[in-house]
Structures are given as structure tokens and as C-alpha cells.
Amino acid sequence: MNGHASIVIVGAGPRGTGYLERLAANLPELYGDRPVDIHVVDPHPPGPGRIWRTAQSPLLWMNSRAEDVTMFTDETVDMAGPVRPGPTVAEWSGIEGRTFPTRPQQGAYLRWVYERARAALPATARLHEHRTTALRIAGPREGRQRVWLEGGAAPLLADLVVLTVGHLDAEPDPEQRALTRFAARHGLLHLPPDFTADSDLAALPAGEPVLVRGFGLAFVDLMVLLTEGRGGRYEGEGDALVYVPSGREPRLHVGSRRGVPYQTKIGYSLDGEPPPLPRFFGAAQTDALLRRTGPVDFRRDVWPLIDKELGWAHYHRLFAAHPERTALAWDDFERAYETAPPSGAELAAVVAAAVPDPADRLDLDALDHPLDGIRFSSTEALQHGLRDYIGDNLTRRHDPAHSADAAVFAGLLSVYGQLLRLGKRVDPGPWWHGFFSYLASGPPGPRMRQLLALSRAGVVRFLGPGLTVETDEERGLFRAASAAVPGEWTEARALVEARIPDPTLELTGSPLLRALHEDGARATAAGLLVVDPADGRVLERDGRPHPRRFALGPHTTARTGSAFTRPRTGGAAFAQNDAAARAALTLLRDGACPLPAPLSA
To answer: Which residues does the UniProt record annotate as the domain FAD-dependent urate hydroxylase HpyO/Asp monooxygenase CreE-like FAD/NAD(P)-binding (predicted)?
Structure first.
């Protein structure tokens, strides 16, 4: 082993690539011309990683427009490191900006970003790629770490280890294990939560009913791969779009807690004055929460502030862009809204007096439970009702007359930035991340038009909200029912869980993260790795940040709200990457991680 400092980055997908870019940008200032070895460990291609690898179906799309995705910093990012601008996916590839790139196209962009970051490293930094899996980290707090790799090679020695492992497989929970055992007993098929592109969908037989639990983005991928992916095609366009089956499709019966797809991606830009954010959930409010001596509860202490903040974004836009639909002067409404307590009757009365049409008011609870209390006379009536709902949502999300929806999206991004500041003090739990995705990360409009065409063709059938899945031991079948059509059951010999695995340390498929937790890393009740929000250092169970271990990404308490960053939106993930890179380089420079002496010959 030479006398160089050594950094090991575990995970070479988008997050690892973004961290490498920040290392390259900050090395000259913080570490000068001293030599450093940088090891990148990932069994998948560096840059795209597993999820965005180029070797997957081009039928699968990104969930963002080409003009809305960048891997590069700009002056809106709140960071200490240098800005290194670069192109969006649209600018780099030549794809029309408002189209949705395919996953392989995005993977090619990420590979290029990785190569550019590697080329930007100074000559004294040597990059080593290891196309394998990291299994375990060990080492004293004040000494070098050892990173064991699959395959039995000698462990990598590291002064610092940075985990940027992204989304991972997970072990099934007790319910999923029971469903798999039931399927094995009766010769059925059960596909547990997984990345849809990696699931064995070939096992789903043509023409047979399949129960699908989950109506988010994983379902959209499933829908695509089992229709167009099996030779079906679309004819016509817009509301006249028609699906022409190949005859190889299964019949998908889909339901979920809400019973509806995620909100359709907004199809216009927010012009004019953006809502001035943050206002009611900003630095002052998060500072006050951080100063509390007692526990901070998300629902009690944080959610009311979020509710008021998103309402502020909504009504600011409504008054500015659509004043004819309001009944008060803006200044009067602003004063009344500001003084009313969050999430109470007084605030609701202020809004009702100022906004006559209930359809123009923001009701987050109604958005989260769009079909609560609605009953349909039959499953056929449910199909018509859901098609009407999806069609109305598709129309609304492409109509600038409802531009307050786009302002709420901007508010959601602002809220996520404040939640990152709160870090370990509050655990939003899985509901918040699901709600955020439901409002802000829905499918593109063309996918919803395809869903409507598939429904009209009978390839997709809606099960409704409050989905219940049961097993029938006597008949050897899966059964599903919805609160929307009481007493109606749908039976099938196959069940697909259309969602990705939850990122918990207890159930993670990563032996590395499991071992880290067993070695003393702190976790939340939801099973996320607790990190210092300031620089991403892993916190131990006694609350101390580990001086040599960092973690960034969805398996941590500092997870950001979306996979990629829009240009000129502050880029919380960029700020995290920069802070973690600068902290690591400072630790090396200042001797907190003393360099090893070279081995004698």
C-alpha cells in the first residue's frame, strides 16, 4: 500500500457520480496537489448504475422532461464549492426539451457525466473502478477503514468511505413471505416488490387476470412492458387514442390505497412571478424546531407548517394569475392568512371568504384521499368513474387556468429543503414521501392517455381504493376487493406488488448496510440510516458522527424528494454532495485522517 490518502465511494450511479463531480471541483482548493486514490465500487456501469443502465427496454421513459434534468450546479445552489455548469439532458443529447427521454438515453447522459467528472480530477488523483459489490466496512473510528468486496479479494483500505448506493433490493417482509409461500403451495405466481425492469414478467401468462397492488410509477412500467413490450401498439392520438392488442397481454386488475394513479405530470410552465418561498415553513421555523429540547413530531409539529406553506404557494398564484376567481384584495387576504393558525377552522374560514369556488381551494387531505366515501354500483360503473377521474386530472394538469397546481409543486420542493435541514430531529415516515411522489412525481400525460386506452380496450381493469388482498386456501387463488364496490371480489392466479422495496436497514438486500447497522450505525423507526444533515456523516447510536463514514441518498434521513434536479431550482442534492465532499477533503487535509506511512520494500 502506498502513502496516498484513499477515499472509497460505494455506488457509482447518479448519486455517486454527482459526489465524484463535487470531489473533482473541490480538490484543488481544499487538498492542493497532494496525491489521493479514489476507489469507485459498483457491480453496475459507472454513471447510470443499475436503474439507468443503457441495456434496458427503450419503451421505458424517464419521468421528467429532457429540459428539466441536469447533473450540474449553478448559482442557485447554496454551497461553498465552485459552480461547474454543464448541459441538461436536452442540451447534451439534442432531444427536444419537452419530451421524456428513454431510460437508455438518460443512462448515456449519466455515463458522459461520469466520464467528465473523471477527466476533471487533477493529475494527483487516481481513480480506480471495481465492478463488484461491497460487502462490509470495518475499522476503528480513528483509524483506516477496510471495505471488503465480493469475490474474496483483499479489502480496500480507506481513510474515508462514502456510501452512495441508491435504491436497493430488500428482503421480503412477513406479509410478502406468507404470500410467496401461499403461491408455492398452490402453483400460483407472486412477484414481491421489485424494480419492474428486473422482474420476471415473462412468467405472467397471456390472457389471464393478474392482480396488481400499487398504482404509482412501478405500475406504469409494468403496464408498458406487458402491453407494448409484448407487441401491442397504439393508433390515433389524444382522446381518440386506441390500443390494438397483440393477444399476448395479461389482463391487469390494478388497485391501491388511493385507487388512482399519481397526479399527472404538469404539462405547462409556471410563467410570471413565482410564489415567494419559503414563507411559513422556512429557516426561522426549522431553527425553532431544532432548538426544541423535546421530541419533534412530524404530524403534530411539522405537517401544519407544510400545509400552510403549500396553501400560501397555491393562493399566491391564484390571486396573481386568476384574480377574477377571488373575492378579496390580495393585501387583505395576505394579512388574514398570515395571522390565522395553521390547519384550523380559522384558516379555512379565511380561505372560504376569499375563494368562492371550492374547486379553487387547496385541500391536501382530499387530494390524498380522492375516492374516500365514494361507492359505485358495480365494477363496470367503477371503470367509467375512474376513466372520468383520470381524464379530468389529465385535462387539469395541462391547463394553465389551474396554474396554482404548479405553484404547489414549487412549494413541495421548498418544503423538502427544510425537511433536510431538520434531518435527524424528525422522521416524516413513509407517508410523506409517498404523498410527495403522488403530487410531484406523477407520470407524463402521454402515459395517462395510454392508460385510458388500455382501460377502454379491457386490458387494464380498475379495482379501486382501499384495496384488500386475501388468499383463498380452499380454492387456491388470490382475491382482491375494494371499498368502492363492497362485496365484489376479483380472483386471479397471479399477484404483482407494483412498488419498489422500502429502503429500510432491517430488510435491505445490501449486506453492507446491514453490517453497518449491526456495527453501531443509528437508524430511524422507519429503518433509514441517520446522517448528519450538515455533511452526510453517519451517526452512531450514541449520536456522534462517525469521522470516516458518509452516506448520501434514499437510504438515509437526508433523502431528497426526487431522483434528479431541475436547472436553477437550488439543487438540494447538489448542496449535499458539495458539503460531503468538502467535509471529506477537509478531514484529510487537516490531519483528522492521518496518512499512512509508505510500506518499506
So the answer is: 8-167
Q: Report CA-CA distances (Å) from 387 to 237, 383, 390, 396, 517.
A: 17, 6, 5, 14, 46
What local confidence, expressed as pLDDT, does residue 596 receive?
A: 47
Task: Provide the pLDDT for residue 600.
Answer: 34
Closest-CA residue to 402 (of 587, 493, 509, 266): 266
Q: How far apart are CA 258 and CA 371, in angstroms?
A: 7
Q: Give the DSSP per-residue string, 177-240.
A: HHHHHHHHHHT-EEE-S--GGGS-GGGSPTT-EEEEE--SHHHHHHHHHTTGGGT-EEES-GGG
pLDDT of residue 343: 81
Task: Note the pLDDT of residue 395.
Answer: 97
pTM for the full model?
0.93
Check: CB of residue 107 under 8 Å from CB of residue 48.
yes
Q: Where would I find the beta strands (DSSP E) of 311-377? A: none
Evaluate whether 492 touches 204 at the Cβ level (below 8 Å): no
CA distances from 122 to 16, 354, 516, 594 (A): 18, 59, 32, 21
Cβ neighbourhood burial of 151 (10 Å; 0-12, 13-18, 19+): exposed
Q: Are 498 and 222 in contact (CB under 8 A)?
A: yes
Lookup: cell for 167: 435504491
pLDDT of residue 593: 53
Using 50 as the pLDDT threshold, list the residues of the chain that sit under it: 1, 595-601
Q: Are 582 and 81 in contact (CB under 8 A)?
A: yes
Domain-by-domain residue ranges, the chain?
5-170+503-589, 283-369+399-427
Topology annotation, domain 5-170+503-589: FAD/NAD(P)-binding domain (3.50.50)
- Coil/strand/helix, residue 375: coil
Instruction: For helices 404-422 and 429-440, give the axis angle rounded to 10 degrees.
Output: 150
